[in-house]
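User: Design a sequence. Structure:
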């Protein structure tokens, strides 16, 4: 049986010290940024580059602009909800750039995406000069910008011919930590959705409807837990929240895979009542000081209580779904399993773990 607690505990109680790996992106926390400065002065390099004209042939034509109204270069480049199309992504990014680079949603859009497109040669001839031009337009932490400029200069000197240059390669700021975590999760979510579709495609319409209700309850709990039961201190808080929710979603999919293989939760008589008693005791301890943050984190008893309400609905949805999809499994087995896992999640907020 899959245990959620080792996954969740990775995110709860994190402090702002050291470096850690988020997906494939090395993220630097504030205490280490000073030691990660680039060897070049990004501003001087941008001045040295001088003005470079946008390639007229790469811009969207007047006829194409209406079709691209309201487009998202992020979605078009990575293929989120639409087929990936580098040419459309490039034209869309030029339009986004015209609208204004300062909007938060243009971190992976506008000039930032154009820097990636020209560095990777995606749908256009590779041009490091253009990649540098657009990278110089990206607003961000000075150390981060300098590292990115230095990175592109190095790739240019090496005549690099790859396709995986990414703004996240040189992330140092809390803002980019969050956006890079979002990108990673969006990419993983595409694969996750395909796996879920493969599992459920042969289910009956009734089973699929019940599963949608379970997914709705699961989404509400995962979002509430990652928002209220993870220490969101510091500039990396967006990344912490996204990664915590991603781990819950991964655990949900892994559990479903196990159940589809016939590896169901096991329980002994009395397990559900025992787990309920443990959970009630934990909540009484956590809620004993309702206005006091837990161990100097952003987590509060009120937040945990909010997540607990969402979890109760999630548990009931699992039990109802389980009765329909896996009728051989007693409801008590689902109740015991889910409650035991919830106890493990909450025990990290009790100093002695009891």
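Assistant: Done.
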């Amino acid at each position: 049986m899959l245990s959620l607690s080792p996954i969740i505990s990775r995110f709860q109680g994190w402090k702002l010290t050291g470096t850690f790996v988020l997906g494939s992106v090395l993220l630097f926390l504030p205490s280490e940024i000073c030691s990660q400065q680039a060897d070049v002065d990004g501003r001087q390099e941008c001045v040295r580059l001088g003005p470079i004209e946008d390639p007229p042939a790469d811009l969207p034509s007047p006829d194409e602009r209406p079709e691209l109204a309201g487009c998202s270069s992020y979605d078009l480049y990575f293929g989120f909800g639409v087929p990936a199309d580098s040419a459309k992504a490039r034209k869309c990014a030029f339009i986004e750039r015209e609208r204004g680079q300062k909007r938060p949603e243009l971190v992976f859009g506008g000039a930032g995406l154009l820097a990636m497109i020209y560095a990777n040669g995606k749908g256009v001839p590779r041009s490091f000069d253009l990649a540098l031009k657009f990278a110089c337009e990206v607003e961000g932490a000075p150390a981060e910008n300098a590292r990115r400029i230095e990175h592109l200069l190095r790739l240019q000197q090496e005549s690099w011919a790859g396709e995986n240059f990414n703004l996240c390669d040189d992330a140092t700021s809390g803002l980019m930590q969050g956006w890079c975590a979002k990108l990673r999760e969006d990419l993983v979510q595409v694969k996750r959705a395909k796996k879920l579709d493969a599992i459920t495609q042969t289910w009956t319409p009734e089973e699929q409807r019940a599963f949608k209700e379970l997914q709705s309850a699961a989404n509400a709990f995962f979002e509430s837990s990652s928002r209220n039961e993870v220490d969101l201190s510091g500039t990396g808080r967006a990344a912490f929240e996204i990664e915590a929710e991603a781990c819950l979603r991964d655990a949900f999919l892994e559990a479903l895979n196990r159940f589809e293989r016939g590896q169901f939760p096991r329980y002994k008589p009395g397990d559900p009542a025992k787990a309920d008693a443990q959970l009630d005791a934990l909540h009484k301890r956590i809620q004993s000081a309702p206005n006091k943050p837990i161990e100097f984190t952003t987590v509060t008893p009120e937040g945990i209580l909010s997540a607990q309400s969402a979890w109760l609905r999630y548990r009931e949805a699992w039990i109802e779904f389980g009765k329909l999809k896996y009728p051989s499994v007693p409801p008590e087995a689902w109740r015991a399993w889910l409650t035991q896992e919830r106890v493990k999640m909450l025990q990290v907020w009790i100093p002695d773990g009891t």
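The mean pLDDT is 85. The chain has 14 helices and two strands.
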